[in-house]
Every structure is written in structure tokens, then in C-alpha cells.
Amino acid sequence: MSPAPLANRLLTRLQHYVVFADDERAAIETACAGPPLAVRQRRDLIREGDRPRGVNLIVDGWAFRYKTLEDGRRQIIAFHLPGDLCDVHGYILREMDHSVGALTPVRYVEIPRDQIEALAALGPRVNQALWWDALTGAAIQREWTVNLGQRDALERLSHLFCELIFRLRVVGMVDGARCEIPLTQTDLAEATGMTPVHVNRMVQELRSRNLIRWKGREFEALDLDGLCDVAMFNPAYLHLDHEGRHLDANG
């Protein structure tokens, strides 16, 4: 699958919910066309306590949402992939209650509050697509809670890999079952509530079962169905089955 143009990955993803009319597509593309900002790897896009000015759209690279305890321990609570809006309604907050950092070098566009509100005012298709996007983010968060509370270590890691593959596939960043996953074992540990050593053991177990191949950033699910079985993965929570077909534009 060829990747979507960088600036259009949000549009590509939103159209999994509903098919837009030409003017709606043009308005979304215009909102995404602001000057791209760049942040270096392991630097923050926005920090806890900052006042949000708009909504950050990840154009290229991987970002993550996290909380840090006073003693320095960190919990990763979400990954943001190309085409993701970081907290689509977060601009209404007086200050951020979490931080968003760059896992890799990241390019992003800051969409001002008035542009997001103008998009929502275009009509029910765009407005509901933005809400579906926000609700999908909440559904992912619920699934991560289930991961931490109920799945064992192997299931937990397998589930995260499955989720990333399905999410990357939406924006054309998976070739067969191969993709880039630029995460360290420490990143995975902070996202799954394990130690890096335990993550390493689980990665080796998945390799020994011939379920995955992972070298550097290059990841391949050798048996995606088998990986999903280990994880008890059901992609329904990602809401990729054209939720808004009843609102589709005719052209």
C-alpha cells in the first residue's frame, strides 16, 4: 500500500468514518496546510501545565502522550502516529494535564482553535468525524486500561503490536504486514507497565513462536492472525468499519 501524502493522512483517516463532499475535503486540507513545525527526538511538543493554543496534527514521525511522577517515573498513555490529532478538543483546557513528546523527529501543524471550530461548523459529516476521532482515542485508552489490568505480559505486548499495525495500515504505512515501529524496549515498558528486561523476554518469546520479526525499526508480523489470537485482539474498538456511511456525501 502506498503511503498517503503527508498532509492528507488526517483526511485519509477521517474518511474511514465518513465520505466527505469536495468542499469538506478542501476545507480539511486547508486546515492542515499551515506551516509545519519541527521538534527533535525526545523533546516535547507541549508540556503539562502549558496552555494549549490549538490542536497539534502529527504530519510525520511518532509522538507520545505521557505523565511523569515527582520521582521521575514515566507512564506512556498513548502513541500519536502520522495523521493523528493530539486531543482534538484539548484546546478548551486552561492548561495541559499531560505532556506530548516526540519519540522520533516530528513534524506537526498547529491547527488554531478557530479553524477546528470552523471545520466542525461545516456540517454533520465533518463534525461527527471529529467526534468519532475523539471517541476512538477514548476507546484506545480504555483498551490500554484493560491491557494493564487483565492481560498478561505476552498478551499485552502482542495487543500493542496488533493495534499499531492496524492504525498504521489506515494511513498507508504498512506493506503487507511490514512497517516501521521506532520504539525502544524502554518505550514499550513505559507503555505496558513492564520492565525493559521483561519486554525483552516477551519479544524473544514472540520471535521464538515465529509470530514477529523485528530488527532495528523494521517490524513484520509473520503471522498476524496468530499474533491477534495471542493478544485476543478485536479491532472493533478502532472503529474502522465506516461508522458514518449513513452520512456519506454522494461525490
Topology, please?
Blueprint: H1 9-14, H2 22-31, E1 37-39, E2 44-46, E3 54-60, E4 63-68, E5 74-80, E6 85-86, E7 99-102, E8 106-112, H3 113-120, H4 124-150, H5 153-170, E9 178-180, H6 185-192, H7 196-208, E10 212-215, E11 218-221, H8 224-231
Antiparallel strand pairs: 1-8, 2-7, 3-6, 3-8, 4-5, 4-7, 9-11, 10-11
Helix pairs in contact: 5-7, 5-8, 6-7
Kindly identify the CATH topology of the domain at 10-127.
Jelly Rolls
What is the end-to-end distance?
Answer: 24 Å
SSE sequence, one letter per element: HHEEEEEEEEHHHEHHEEH
Shape: globular
CATH superfamily name of the domain at 10-127?
Answer: Jelly Rolls
Query: What Rg, in angstroms, do the CA atoms define?
Result: 18 Å
Query: Given the helix and strand composition, which structural class is it?
Result: alpha+beta
Low-confidence residue ranges: none
Read across the widest sheet, the strand sequence of neighbours is: 1-8-3-6
In terms of DSSP E residues, the strand content is 15-25%
Major beta sheet summary: 4 strands, antiparallel
CATH architecture of the domain at 10-127: Sandwich
Number of strands: 11
Provide the residue-averaged pLDDT: 93
How much helix, percentage-wise, in residues?
25-40%
Q: Output the CATH class name of the domain at 10-127.
A: Mainly Beta
Q: Count of helices?
A: 8
Protein name: Cyclic nucleotide-binding protein
Keywords: DNA-binding, Transcription, Transcription regulation
GO biological process, one term: regulation of DNA-templated transcription
GO molecular function, one term: DNA binding
